[in-house]
């Protein structure tokens, strides 16, 4: 039994992120193909890096993305629409990005645990210890460090045509190709063997 759920994916920009890398990854993660399950639906921005938000918002809006943010994000960038609780539980599959300012890695992990769909989540940081903690603690089929969530694709993983992204834990997890859903049949040919 494979569980393929919606991609309520997150990109967390840590306080030690390179701003240019963060911008490029985030715009790609949301706007390359906003209608696929690997698209980022929520930006979690560390409050220690919140001064990056105007630059990130400019790049996203220039690419045609609507931003919906919490009160802190709205204070930093006038014109960001308010995000509702329902927005954080929605796979928009459109050029709409939720924005939440979080107080550190623990808050980002808690948000992902509450609102995520165990599909794909990414951290952008130069801090290797924080990246390792994020990779270990986020319970998603695909967890990334300094890469776009748009890489959540069976073809990118070398599996050929993708059947889906399995978010459960039984059998295949992550991108699923035909080889992952192949079952086996054993044919045993004997000439009178018995087990002692």
Short description:
The chain has 196 residues and is of the alpha/beta class. Helix content is 28%, strand content 20%.
Main sheet overview: 7 strands, parallel
Which shape, going by the Cα principal axes?
elongated
Low-confidence stretches: none
In whole angstroms, how far apart are the ends? 36 Å
As laid out across the biggest beta sheet, the strand order is 4-3-5-2-1-6-7
What's the level 1 CATH class?
Alpha Beta
Number of helices: 6
Descriptive keywords:
196 residues, alpha/beta, Aldehyde Dehydrogenase, Chain A, domain 2, seven-stranded parallel β-sheet, two-stranded antiparallel ribbon, 6 helices, 9 strands, elongated
Description:
The protein has 196 residues and is α/β, with parallel strands linked by helices. It has one domain (9-152): Aldehyde Dehydrogenase, Chain A, domain 2. It is built from 6 helices and 9 strands. The strands form 2 sheets. A 7-stranded parallel beta sheet has the order 4-3-5-2-1-6-7, sandwiched between helices. Strands 8-9 form a two-stranded antiparallel ribbon. Helix 6 (128-137) links the parallel strand 6 (120-124) and strand 7 (142-145). Helix 1 packs parallel to helix 2. The longest helix has 13 residues, at 19-31. It starts with 8 loop residues before the first strand and ends in a 20-residue tail after the last strand.
